[in-house]
Amino acid sequence: MKTLRQRNIRDYFMVGLLYVSTIVVLTPLIIIIGYVIVNGISSINIDFFTQELGSPARAMQGRPTGLVHTILGTLVVDSLALIIAAPLGLGAGVMLSEYPDHKLNPLLRVMNDTLNGMPAILKGLLAFALVVKPMGAFSGLAGGVALAFVMIPIIARSTESALMTIPWSIREAGLAIGLPRWRVVLSTVMPAARTGLVTGFLIAFARAAGEAAPLMFTSFGNNYLPNRWTGMIFGPVDTLPQRLYSLAISPYKEWHAMGWAAGVVLLVFVLGLFITGRVLTRQKFKV
Amino acid sequence: MYDISDIKEKAGDQIDGTSGTSGSDKRTEGPATIRMETKDLTVKYGEVTGVRNISLPVYNQKATALIGPSGCGKSTFLRALNRMHDLTRNAVISGEVLLDGKNIYHPKVNPVVIRRKIGMVFQKPTPFPTMSIFDNVVAGLRLVGIRDKNLLNEVCERALRQAALWDEVKDRLSSAGGSISGGQQQRLSIARALAIDPEVILMDEPTSSLDPLSSSKIEELIHELKEKYAIVIVTHNMQQAARVSDYTAFFYLGELVEFGPTDQLFTNPVHQRTEEYLTGKFG
Fold this sequence. Notes:
The structure holds 2 protein chains of 2 kinds.
Chain A (H helix, E strand, L loop, with lengths): L3 H37 L5 H5 L5 H5 L7 H31 L6 H13 L2 H16 L4 H25 L3 H9 L4 H12 L1 H16 L21 H4 L5 H9 L4 H28 L7
Chain B lengths: L3 H9 L21 E12 L2 E12 L3 E5 L6 H7 L10 E9 L2 E2 L7 H7 E4 L11 H10 L6 H14 L3 H4 L12 H14 L4 E5 L7 H14 L4 E5 L3 H7 L2 E6 L2 E7 H6 L4 H7 L5
């Protein structure tokens, strides 16, 4: 029989352990964010957001240079990817959660998991074969398709688990007032799960926004803004992670500095999206 | 007043293959006509039999109570009456369930249409979590495309009055369906079922999660509702069955042991099993 004192000590010890683990988990996150910001913040200025990159000579001669085309390109390619992936991923997630008895579901689940585990660069190859080859050019669209392959399995899985958290009784209640099954899902289950759904989109978006490999031979990269905005969709286009990579492996220290800055922008972009999403999806009514 | 047949037409007929004789007009006929009837109804979950060979009438403008110990198949039977088992993976149903003489399990019958005629209230209140009180009540109309504001307002008030909830919530129809008390939520669920003007109302232990005061309100409500609807209620509470029902069916081990007028079944049961259950020898 342990004394009260011994039990208290054990209690303090365990709580202390929890604090320590929390700190251990958070430390890498803080180090990464801090390190990127410390190294990158000094290279961020107005030119960074308004000028094109151009040739390395620009940066070395101190002429204005920036990544406006990269930032816009990232928005275009990632948005294209989300537009393609959202309905497909959502559909697959609804199928997995709401029609668990459907005979195609085991296959769907295996394929979704396989797609999720497939190296991202292979998804780039697939988009290359599907879009770049037939169109005969690298394009933002091809990059969007490649990133959509990254997003789809994530959205499908997050949609499934978000919908599964809604009690089955809600569905039965919907059916009991004579609603067709699709209507029950659309109007009662999905609204109740919307925070989870949007969070899933954001996680998928953030994951895809950080991918460089699948874009190398799809959206390819570009040092300049295209003449027309449609050039972002149908022509080669720059994206932040890929630009970060190419700046980092370049031999110019001016470009290395810009690479850090690109990292800051990417970080702020992803974190900003996540926070915005959380705020926007605050529940109207608590479930 | 609005014409309910309009709603039926808008809501159901485009998906209703069998419509024609809607039951609304039959309500004025004399009491004790048969509204629903099961013939040799058997529900199996895979190899396990839920209920076996149940033949039972459901009378119009009467409340029929289903009693029996846990696991005896009352809920299984009830859920077969509006095709709720369609969602259960391995449920197999044989026999017939007739609504106004038509088998609701006929392959040409759309279960959605059946469920608009046979409403259901569950054990636990199930307000749609993201909807207001108003939206909850009219969900069955609005979500099939009825947008007429005046009509929806009328239906909402009528249904909430029928469910004896109007006076308590009329000033806050736009608050969340989940923001009211459990008893009120259950009456909200009843109002939601009444809004689509069903012909039969199935209740699966509607008061088992409620306090005594809320329960008695629901019981009063059942008394009023059976003026108009046919009601089938599953209950664990034998006093409740005695209070609210006109007919009682006693289920045991998946079989219908005895069915009869409530006062007769409770005072003078035919079968020994029934008597033993009623007097508390088992159950």
